[in-house]
Each structure stands twice: as C-alpha cells, then as structure tokens.
Amino acid sequence: MMFYVYLLRSTDDPKRTYVGFTDDLRQRVKDHNEGKSTHTAKYRPWVIETYVAFSDRKQALDFERYLKTGSGIAFAKKRLRAKEC
Questions:
Q1: Which of 17, 26, 53, 56 is deepest in the core (most CB within 10 A)?
Q2: Which domain holds residue 23?
Q3: Is 45 a domain residue?
C-alpha cells in the first residue's frame, strides 16, 4: 500500500493551495472537487500540483506535517510548485 502527500492548486484562485495526505489519491482529489471537504469546498475546482508517494505511513504523515510549517511552505514554494504560478 502507498500513502500520498499531495499539493493541490485552485484553478479559480491559483494562489490558493492545499496540502493533504491520503492512501487513495484519485478518490481524495475527486472528494475535494465535489465539495466533500469543508477546507477546500470554497475554492474548487482543484488540480494536483505535486504529489509524493511513500510506502511508510508515518513518513508520509511527517512530511505532510512538515509541509504545513513555515519552512515546509518555503520548501514547497521553491521546490514543489510549478514555476509559472
């Protein structure tokens, strides 16, 4: 089983991003775009900007937690996001 940490970008508000964790990436993005998450419903539709797959659940959760910190946000802006945004 794989675990995914993903970065979504709103197509309506390209400066709006969201970082999450899942073991079913396709279904989770579908859920975000159907408004099933209160944190992302307002800014849909969403597209996947980046995702990283892990075989270890704890590693994935640790990376997601890191990406939500100040240094993780800076890392994502510099290394994980599309250059044109």
A1: 17
A2: 3-80
A3: yes
Q: 8, 32 in Cβ contact below 8 A? A: yes
Q: Is residue 85 part of a domain?
A: no
For residue 2, the cross-strand partners are none
* Residue-by-residue DSSP string for 48-60: EEEEEEES-HHHH
Q: Residue 23 belongs to a domain with what CATH number?
A: 3.40.1440.10
Average pLDDT score over residue span 53-60? 98
**pLDDT higher than 70, residue 83:** no
* DSSP-derived secondary structure for 19-31: EEEES-HHHHHHH
CA distance 32 to 43: 9
